[in-house]
Amino acid sequence: xxxxxxxxxxxxxxxxxxxxxxxxxxxxxxxxxxxxxxxxxxxxxxxxxxxxxxxxxxxxxxxxxxxxxxxxxxxxxxxxxxxxxxxxxxxxxxxxxxxxxxxxxxxxxxxxxxxxxxxxxxxxxxxxxxxxxxxxxxxxxxxxxxxxxxxxxxxxxxxxxxxxxxxxxxxxxxxxxxxxxxxxxxxxxxxxxxxxxxxxxxxxx
Length: 205
Hints:
Number of domains: 3
InterPro entries: DUF1642
Organism: Listeria booriae
Oligomer: single chain
Largest sheet: 5 strands, antiparallel
Shape: elongated
Number of strands: 11
Strand content: 15-25%
Protein name: DUF1642 domain-containing protein
């Protein structure tokens, strides 16, 4: 008996010898006598494909990643037609290069590098099989926007220092989002008033 899938199910399938992962978007009117009926599947790259039912299998559930990790992965997805395996190799290579550059100082808490170090297996699954953004963060996050323009100047936590840099300089490893408590701690430690420049992340255009 052929397995039936429902709209929204995460699946993997084979199309022209290519392994794809996506979500069922439309189900056919399947009959038990017809195993070659097509499903409509949206791949994680946004393409619609129509695999026959005998080539579809359930996919591993997406891992949950923070917004900054999801942004980091998506910024390198699909570059120059790389496969997911090539993208993983590229991202891991960048990660290990960054470790070498830090000379054993470690990553800032809450940064992309810190999350990868703590969730290495989940990072591999996220790159290869897809991911979802973790929406369970309940404490509001803020960016310290010093200058508003196309390339904004923001406050960053870089290593053990607090610096104002252009947003384009950050490749995902500097912390640029802070809780209210963290901003107050920065102001107290540096005798500053950065809280006056705080913009809630949801409000950033």
